[in-house]
Amino acid sequence: MGWGASGRNGGQVIPGLKYDPDQLIERYGQERGERLIDTSSRNADVVFELIQRHAIECDAQRHGWLQPAATQAGIQRIESRAAQWAARGVEVEWLTREACAERLGTAAYLAGWRDPRAGSLNPLAFVRGLARAASAAGAQLHEGSAVTGLARQAEGWRATTARGEVTAERVLLCTNGYTDTLQPGLARSLIAANSFQIATRPLSAEEGATILPRGEVASDARKLLFYFRRDAAGRLLFGGRGPFHDPRDPTDFRHLISGMTKLYPALKGVEIDYAWGGRVALTQDSMPHVHEPAPGLHVALGYNGRGVGMGTHLGSLIGRHLGTQALADALPLPLTPIAPIPLHGLQQLYVAAVIQYYRTQDWLER
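User: That's the sequence. What structure does it adopt?
Assistant: C-alpha cells below.
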C-alpha cells in the first residue's frame, strides 16, 4: 500500500486541474466545463474531510498554495488563473515581489498568488490511514498479489494472481504511472515520467526561519517547475523533473540540489537526508481519463501531477456509484475509449524533446 505514486508524491494537496476554469469551458462546453470546475475546486475539501472523518494522522496542514512566477510571461499566466478563481468566489491573494520574498524566503520571484484551499500531508501516512479505514469498513486488502490476468466470465470477471483467482462482478483499474500490459493498450495511453524529490535534514530554527514561514506549499509557474514545502520535522522537501529512468545514484538529484540552492543560497552544502523518485502518469490531453473498456470493467488514471486531490476525489465518486446506472452521470469526466499514443515506444524521446522544449521556453521567458 502506497508503494507507488500514492506514497511517494510531493504531499501537496492542490485543487483544480492543469487547465484553468475558462480553458475547461472552452474545451468541454459550458455544462461539462462547469462540472469539472466545481468538482476539481473541491478536491482539497474531499481530502481533508476524509482525514478528519477517519482521524488519519498524516501531518495534514491546510495553509494554502503559493504559485510564484520568475518572468513577466509567467506573471501574465498566473494573473489570469488567479482572476478566474477569484471570479468563482475563491479568496485568492495576489503577492507582490516583496510579499513573495517574505512568504517564500527567496527573492527569486517577481510576483505570485496564493490559493487558500490547498494544503499538505505526509502521503504515505495518508494512504495507510485510508487503508485502515477501508479495512475497518469491511474491505479486504491484499498486498503482494499482482493481477496477472483478467478475463470476462459468465459470472463476472476473473482476476488471476500468482496465488490464486478472484471472481468479481466489477473491476476498477487505478494503476496510473505504474500501468502494465494487463489491459490492452492502456499503458500506451500514458507517458510514465519521473518526478524526483530531495529532503534536507531538519533545518534549525535559524536556518528555516524565513523559508515558507506560514506553512504554505509552493510550486512555481515555470514549464519545468520546482515544487517545495516544509515537513513536520522542519525539513525542506524540494522536487522537480527527473530523468526517464528510476533513480540510480546521487548524480540523478544534482539538478534539484542546484535548483534548491539557487532559491536558497544559505542552504548550500546542507545535508540531504532523503532522495527518491516516482512515476507521474501524463496523458496526451493533460486531463485524467476514465474508461469503460467492457461492462463491469472501469479504469481511472492520468492525474498529471495532481493525483492527491483529483485521484482521491475521483475515487470517492467512483466508489459511491460503481455498478450503478448513475456512474457516468455522477462523474465530471466523460467516459472515453482507451486511445494509445502514436509511436508510444518512442516515449523516452517524447519526454526528452518536451523537456528540452520547456527548458528553451523557460530560458526565452527569462
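Residues 67 and 286 are 19 Å apart (CA to CA).
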